[in-house]
Amino acid sequence: MTLTFAAPSNDKAELEIGSAFTPRFDEKGLVTAVVTDARDGELLMVAHMNAEALALTIETGIAHYFSRSRNSLWKKGESSGNVQAVQEIRTDCDQDAVWLKVTVAGHDATCHTGRRSCFYRTVGVEGGEPKVTISDERRYFDPKLVYAEK
Amino acid sequence: MTLTFAAPSNDKAELEIGSAFTPRFDEKGLVTAVVTDARDGELLMVAHMNAEALALTIETGIAHYFSRSRNSLWKKGESSGNVQAVQEIRTDCDQDAVWLKVTVAGHDATCHTGRRSCFYRTVGVEGGEPKVTISDERRYFDPKLVYAEK
Question: Where does Zn(2+) bind (chains A, B) (predicted)?
Answer without folding.
Answer: 93, 111, 118
